[in-house]
TrEMBL record:
Keywords linked to the UniProt accession: 4Fe-4S, Electron transport, Iron, Iron-sulfur, Metal-binding, Repeat, Transport
Keyword Metal-binding: yes
Residues annotated as domain LUD: 74-286
All copies of domain Lactate utilization protein B C-terminal, residue ranges: 404-475
4Fe-4S ferredoxin-type domain boundaries: 317-383
Transmembrane portions of the chain: none
SUPFAM superfamilies reported for this sequence: 4Fe-4S ferredoxins, NagB/RpiA/CoA transferase-like
InterPro entries for the chain: 4Fe4S_Fe-S-bd, 4Fe4S_Fe_S_CS, FTHF_cligase-like_sf, Helical_ferredxn, LUD_dom, LutB/LldF, LutB_C, NagB/RpiA_transferase-like
One protein family per Pfam: LUD_dom
Descriptive protein name: Lactate utilization protein B
Gene3D superfamilies reported for this sequence: Alpha-helical ferredoxin, NagB/RpiA/CoA transferase-like
UniProt organism field: Streptomyces tibetensis
Length: 479
């Protein structure tokens, strides 16, 4: 079963209400996202052609999606020619079966993993565990989430909701159950935490025979696959094991190797606020005597082809998973990622998740936005997230249509009937003016029915005591 939407999680409004009450989480988020925002603005401002790079990146992505089938077939040919094996997975279940079969063929019961959104999307770790195979996350933030039996809350920094003291407690409590235990006198200093993780993971790196990775990009003309990271864990996973299995969404393909020039400038500046990624890992098939000798590329659809059919929503597939939109979103900063109920949180999750999982399965997410447009301004490939959100909101409303009208539909029908004739509008304005004259201090204390949810959380100004029409008639008659 696909893990695009976490089963059992409440809809965004209910989850967000609980998240907003977590003051420690909000403080962690505010500090982290604020720091990343400042760094991104600084390094992007260093480039005179930053906007040109964004335009170029958007153009490459649009062209790729327009001819996705051609580029994917060419990628398969290139990877195969370089000694790799390509597998096609229509959905999460098929992808999980393929990866499980490949691991079982090696005779191993453990794999090390590079941080991968695609494997989170399909729930690979859980599927492998059910088949007796243990997956070890090697990215520091993913390790924290795994040891804490938690879920990621950010695309780039999955443990962004955790503070240093919380991480120390997780390491002390759980590391010993997964491998080398944490030092007894472990402090919450970042260097000490990183050193504990390094010692814990080293034995896994040196003993692992199979690695599973995601992919940031794959070049159709050469078959080259790219993974960028900041810690070196990816380099260890991608070079030491004998077998490497990469699970990649089909939208990650690029037409040519030269296209990397644009994205390797856009991605680090937009994600971590760095001029370049500390580790840029590129490999092409299999090289005798160097690196993994058995390479498999699993191309994952899982709703992407359906998304591609949507002429408005398809631009979402251009996302390069930089997380810039999360770091500028006022909603995400207050609710965190868990409220979105998906591995893809924030603005991009609000548009990507409903398309991959079906709008009916994530109907509240398109409304998890103020439509302020900050995400569009920050996106390195110019995905117009606000426009897609509005588009998906319309779909969510249409999906709820039935023989019994929804409360929203009833409100719209009443409004349409009121605005249909000048007389009805005048009567409505007279009634509103009466409410305004009876109100105290110009504020309505509590609205009736479901509208009370609005007035319970904010001041509701009373309607004006006199409508413009009435004022105009009075003024004209006075002349």
């Amino acid at each position: 079963m696909s893990n695009v939407v976490w089963l059992g999680t409440p809809a965004f409004p209910e989850a967000a209400k609980a998240a907003v009450a977590d003051t420690r989480m909000r403080a962690n988020l505010r500090k982290a996202t604020g720091t990343i925002r400042g760094k991104r603005l600084a390094v992007a401002g260093e480039l005179d052609d930053w906007e040109d790079l964004r335009t170029a990146g958007a153009a490459v992505k649009r062209e790729t999606l327009r001819h996705l089938d051609t580029h994917l077939l060419r990628l398969e040919e290139s990877v195969t020619a370089a000694g790799g094996t390509v597998h096609w997975a229509a959905d999460a279940a098929e992808a999980n079966r393929i990866v499980t079969r490949l691991v079982q063929a090696t005779g191993e019961s453990e794999v090390v993993k590079v941080k991968s959104m695609a494997t989170q999307e399909i729930g690979l770790n859980e599927h492998l565990a059910a088949e007796g195979i243990r997956a070890y996350e090697t990215d520091l933030a993913e390790l924290i989430v795994q040891l804490g039996d938690d879920r990621p809350s950010h695309i780039l920094v999955p443990a962004i909701h955790k503070g240093r003291s919380e991480i120390r407690e997780i390491f002390q409590d759980a590391m010993g159950r997964w491998g080398a235990p944490a030092p007894e006198e472990l402090t919450d200093e970042p260097a000490a935490l990183a050193d504990a993780a390094r010692l814990h993971l080293r034995e896994k790196f040196l003993s692992a025979k199979v690695a599973v990775s995601g992919a940031n990009f794959a070049c159709a003309d050469t078959g080259t696959v790219a993974v960028v990271e900041s810690e070196g864990n990816g380099r260890m996973c991608l070079t030491l094991p004998e077998t490497l299995i990469t699970v990649m969404g089909i939208e990650k393909v690029l037409p040519s190797f030269t296209d990397l020039e644009v994205f390797l400038q856009l991605l680090p500046r937009s994600s971590t606020g760095e001029r370049m990624n500390p580790y840029t890992n590129l490999w092409t098939g299999v090289t005798p005597g160097d690196g993994p000798q058995d390479f498999h590329l699993v191309l994952l659809d899982n709703g992407r082809t359906d998304t591609l059919r949507d002429t408005v929503g398809r631009e979402t597939l251009g996302c390069i998973r930089c997380s810039a939109c999360l770091n500028v979103c006022p909603v995400y900063e207050r609710t965190g990622g868990h409220a979105y109920g998906s591995p893809y949180p924030g603005p991009i999750g609000a548009v990507l998740t409903p398309q991959l999982a079906g709008v009916e399965n994530a109907a509240s997410l398109p409304f998890a936005s103020t439509l302020c447009g900050a995400c569009y301004d920050a996106c390195p490939v110019k995905i117009d997230i606000p426009t897609v959100l509005v588009h998906l909101r319309a779909k969510a409303v249409d999906a709820k249509r039935g023989p019994v009208p929804t409360p929203e539909a009833l409100v719209v029908k009443v409004a349409a009937a009121t605005l249909a004739t000048p007389r009805r509008l005048s009567l409505a304005q007279w009634g509103a003016g009466l409410v305004g004259r009876l109100s105290r201090g110009g504020v309505l204390r509590r609205l009736p029915g479901p509208m009370a949810r609005w007035s319970d959380t904010r001041d509701t100004p009373a309607p004006p005591r006199e409508s413009f029409r009435a004022w105009w008639r009075r003024e004209r008659n006075g002349r």
